[in-house]
Amino acid sequence: MRKVIVVGGGIGGLCTAVRLLKQGYEVTVLEKEPRIGGKVNAKFKNGARFDLTASILMTPQIYTEIFEYAGKDYRDYFELLKIDPIYGVNYASGEKYNFYSDLGKMVKTLEGIEYKLPIRYLNFLTKSLEKYLVSKKYFLNEPMIDATEVSNKKLIKEFMSISPFKSNSKYLNSVIRNEQIINYMIFQSMYIGVNPYKNSNIYSLIPAISHVYGLWYIKGGFYKYIEALEKLIYDLGGNIQTNTTVEKIMIINNKVKGVISEKGDFKSDIVVCNADYPYAINHLLNNKKKCLKVNKEDYSCSVFIMYLGLNKKYNNLQVHNIYIGEEFKENIQMPFKGEMPEHPSLYLYYPSKIDDSISGKFESILNIMVRVPNLQYKKVKWDKKNINKFRNMILKEIEKINGLEDLKENILYESYLTPIQLKHKFNSYNGTAFGISHKLNQTTYFRPHLKDEDTKGLYFIGSSTHPGNGVSVIIEGTKILTKLIQDDIYKCKI
Ligand SMILES: Cc1cc2nc3c(=O)[nH]c(=O)nc-3n(C[C@H](O)[C@H](O)[C@H](O)COP(=O)(O)OP(=O)(O)OC[C@H]3O[C@@H](n4cnc5c(N)ncnc54)[C@H](O)[C@@H]3O)c2cc1C
């Protein structure tokens, strides 16, 4: 039986482990932290379960497919609940709308804003869905390890058909032509951490798929999915070893031999590295050429998150809420210049709306997330004084939201996540939230590959590799990766 070591128990590492176990490999996951999950993690306080980062679950069929692949019924592992309205959106002007994936309800809401807006919205959905389907068929589901994959005529024609070079904001302006809705769409398309005023409109597919397929919630919070994967790995006979930092990937004569960890050596035929790709290149491999290349890449922004345990329930909040702040365009771009926003736009995650089991001894719990510069810029000092200043600025913005004026007085517990923690806890290179940036010239074949070109038996998976960042995208990536490994075995390349 071939032995596999997976370095890192993030979503990419865990899902690869499941697929390879199902294919009959002997798999051990080595995770440096006491708890697996990587950035999809949890904070436990007074019986409450705070999701650490990820909260938005799109395309649920991708989350359940891996259980089917393993021959299991996902319902024995976790419970999915549909969310609609998908967002409550608050504007600095005081206006507030609920937006739905239910088409009839969405059309009615938009008609109330501007009478022909529903027609433009439907046009947007059609066009952006096309971008999603083309991206999925020709890029996201393909290995992209060979230049010929991006140079064939059919693919270039399909790629050009979705007009990828227009910026996201220009595209939305031309299709939607309503500032409030444009800003709502722009905010969502930033879930991969690129500047929407400078980057491809392809990412408008993010709000489109949220509206088309809806948003979902896992009972008990997002971290329940990691617990479900952990159970699945054990059910399939896999091994997970936490508190184990890998220090080097062992390579002899261009062939992987296993890893060296603080707890000893682990020999294997295959190593799948789920630790963030640029970190792995710089620290786990001795390859100066690759370091030079990866260090020159453009990186996504980072985030600052406040976790609040509250003494009150806020009925006017939905599960997912967006606050579009003043001078949206200027402020939303500041992190990409290395600066903190002065009037931050916010994402508010309020799982207590749908889940009584999550709040513990608090009346309810709330995460507030703001995009901030990554550590590459070195302009922001994440010390106590600055964190407190930024926290106060955020709470001042929150007071502008109808119904949340008294939030500050109802905080019983408060903690934060900064780019520094993303860097040190998860080895997220430059403390980014979303890895190597998804600029067009850093996607598909031009993004770090799933397979190392120089070393037999060495593979990578995660936010900074193809197909890219986001839980469902990475889960899909593990499908491509498993097929690559199987093909290499079949062709005796390992
Ligand atoms: C704030 C925030 C919000 C997000 N929201 C969403 C969302 O709503 N929906 C969504 O789909 N996605 C979201 N994402 C993106 C999603 O969380 C990530 O894309 C995904 O979790 C990354 O998974 P990964 O496989 O790259 O592994 P990572 O999460 O990067 O995990 C890598 C693992 O490797 C371990 N490791 C590193 N170095 C070593 C070593 N030397 N030895 C052993 N172990 C090591 C780390 O500790 C970590 O556990 C969000 C991300 C952030 C940061």
Automatic annotation (TrEMBL):
One of its GO terms (biological process) is carotenoid biosynthetic process. GO terms for molecular function: oxidoreductase activity. Residues 11-468 form the Amine oxidase domain. It comes from the Bacteria. The keyword Repressor does not apply. InterPro entries: Amino_oxidase, Carotenoid/retinoid_OxRdtase, FAD/NAD-bd_sf. Pathway: Carotenoid biosynthesis. PANTHER family: PHYTOENE DESATURASE. Belongs to the carotenoid/retinoid oxidoreductase family. CrtN subfamily. This is Phytoene desaturase. The lineage of its organism: Bacteria, Bacillati, Bacillota, Clostridia, Peptostreptococcales.
